[in-house]
């Protein structure tokens, strides 16, 4: 499905693509002259890291240059992002960015050491929904029933998340904003601890990443009501998208997502070359199988497609965060 949206096209200021004409070299003219680094602004083991380590060997074979993954976690992705922003704009340092530091963080944090214009989007890797799960004791088997239960008990139910400002937290915030409901947010240090508290019945519901929450659903420990994406997910095809269930959720569309960025001054032939390589990578059976296994959807397309997608995400989460009045210091 196309990634560009009218709203993204109108959003200002936009993430810009380099103004270097394709005629100056084209997508196949640039090749790296030294090793490529893929900086992951997160710890090993998560989806960002998985994406980078799936991509690195392909780029290494494609270009005939070493390609290494470096994890630079800390400060919600700010440390790794800042390292790439400061790197030479020559295609040898890539950022495996994500929804946190490249969209949510731009509105969430009071003083970021970089701007949205400091990075150029190249190509996405994968996106995937969050899933709304409730403890079996909650008297709701559908999302509308949960909303009705929340409205009868304002402020009496709690929802968990892996931390303030994380995608599952803000998915819950937007859900409550859109449905006019109140619930108490309980942050934990990671999705695992939050899921354990949900299974124990100490919180009543949460929006969990599908990739991490699907095992609890299949084991029957929690009840799934909906996915956050605009469309259903192939891993749970009978589970509706949230926007299918209530008119007030018609615009509800949340995905965690990941993709490659480069420093803003990177010439267009470099961007085109890396994008072309990544589009070949997306077409491999290994990558397709991995995304299916994770419940993910390929985030493939042109640099313009990816830039429009990222801009729409920045605007969407900025509106949710401003409405909530949520601001954090970088820590």
From TrEMBL:
This is Tripartite tricarboxylate transporter substrate binding protein. CDD domains: PBP2_Bug_TTT. InterPro entries: BUG (IPR005064), Bug_dom1 (IPR042100). SUPFAM superfamilies: Periplasmic binding protein-like II (SSF53850). It comes from Paracraurococcus lichenis. Keywords: Signal. Residues 1-23 form the signal peptide. Belongs to the UPF0065 (bug) family. The lineage of its organism: Bacteria, Pseudomonadati, Pseudomonadota, Alphaproteobacteria, Acetobacterales.
